[in-house]
């Protein structure tokens, strides 16, 4: 146990030493990793802000249900109160035939309504659902349509569908970028470790000859890769943070033009932690790949 | 301790460095491998240390068949052998002390115990006063002695030395041979390759003569 601990401490010391030995190239590598981390996470931040903004702007979606003309008003009212108790419905407003006519008259169409032999308007329910996701709306729409007394249901979901589709596109873009830049991160680390291995070839050879295990040789490189990935992740986070500050003023202006106040949100702790873990892991993996390849080469040699 | 039976080593390209060799070395022996350069001395040492694998035959060291050993087992096997290389294979980016510390470190030994052992080994080869210097500042003889210190610091029962006195003048060579003699007297098995016949005459011990990969005389 003690030997294990000293091995690890020593490996960390060697890794730190290697950072100190080549500060400039390490700095550049970390910067590149930072940019690689910042690209997908920046897009992610942008997207989640947009999502939040859209949520704030979203007007309440309403479905308008026209009831069949031959239904007595008492039945329509009963239907309205029944629907208002359903779990996915927030509120139901009942507009009777006569109310409808009155509204038309109030809107200055009294001349036309006066000429009608009898009231052509149906009883109408204006329904506000609790959720405005396309799927929930679709389900509600289908259920309302299936009722006996329903003449017609009118719903405008197109813009919601569009927004949701755009968000979906954005999310897949984030995933794609994350995968690509993650690969780049691992590759960058693998490359720096490769250079280190070539610089340390003598040491590795001697260590192997006098009884070092592959693990012993691998460990400092893995620490190096992991630590570099972690610091690169922090750098990426800082880049996103700085980018946020940079565009905050213009975002506020745009929001003000729409008559809204809006604060840009960065990454929170539950997003930052996985990000740093991932960049550390990718750095570690890149190093592992590189060292293993080198060890295999040395063994064959 | 070491048993080679019908051992052949053929390198890619067809050159046979060792062919059909039979040799037994007992515990506590001092053995000189002699022969012209290219006779297979270095290859034989590499076969014993599992740096090379035999093309044919068995190399048994401490009851283990070295030629068939799996890669993960090799490091643990090598820890029981002190290796002294013709080209020293020292690490020039660290102090004399740290060079000798490396084998102990690899075995997970650190702290004052390790430091004591390192100093004891450096004392035996007369380099105690130079522990803080870099190997590059040492003379050829001193570098060879440093290599010996590194080989014996983990107190192996078997020490293999490839041309340890090559490129050294007579006084240095005698120094080093005296050291080996002292190790042998405390029970360490030594296999030393050399082409210096005079040295062998002076120190006695068993002499194994190789020519073109085969035993002669």
Summarize the structure.
Chain A has 9 helices and 4 strands; from the N terminus they run ααβαβαβαβαααα. With 301 residues, chain A is α+β, with helices and mostly antiparallel strands.
What does this structure look like?
The complex is a heterodimer of chains A (301) and B (217). Chain A has a 4-stranded antiparallel β-sheet. The radius of gyration of chain A is 32 Å and the shape is elongated. The model of chain A has no long low-confidence stretch (mean pLDDT 84). Chain A has 301 residues and is α+β, with helices and mostly antiparallel strands. Helices cover 75% and strands 8% of the residues of chain A. The longest helix of chain A is centred in the C-terminal third of the chain and has 44 residues, at 214-257. Chain B is an alpha/beta fold and 217 residues long. Chain B is 34% helix and 25% strand. Chain B contains 7 helices and 10 strands. Chain B has helices spanning 41-48, 74-78, 96-106, 111-124, 140-152, 170-185, 197-203, and strands at residues 2-10, 16-25, 30-34, 56-61, 64-65, 81-84, 158-162, 189-193, 206-211, 214-216. Chain B has a 6-stranded mixed β-sheet with strand order 6-7-8-3-9-10, with helices on both faces. In chain B, strands 2-1-4-5 form a 4-stranded antiparallel β-sheet, with helices on one face. In chain B, a hairpin with a 5-residue loop joins strand 1 (2-10) and strand 2. The longest helix of chain B has 16 residues, at 170-185. In chain B, 41% of the residues are buried. The chains are: A alpha+beta (301), B alpha/beta (217). Chains A and B meet through helix 1 and helix 7 of A and helix 2 and helix 3 of B.
Query: Number of helical segments of chain A?
Result: 9
> Would you tell me the overall average pLDDT of chain B?
89
Question: How does the overall form of chain A come out from the CA principal axes?
Answer: elongated
Largest sheet features of chain A: 4 strands, antiparallel
For the termini of chain A, the CA-CA separation is: 34 Å
How is the main sheet of chain B built?
6 strands, mixed
In one word, what is the shape of chain B? globular
| H-E order of chain A | HHEHEHEHEHHHH
- Report how far the terminal alpha carbons of chain B are from each other: 22 Å
Q: Which blocks of ≥5 consecutive residues of chain B have pLDDT under 50?
A: none
| Poorly predicted tracts of residues of chain A | none
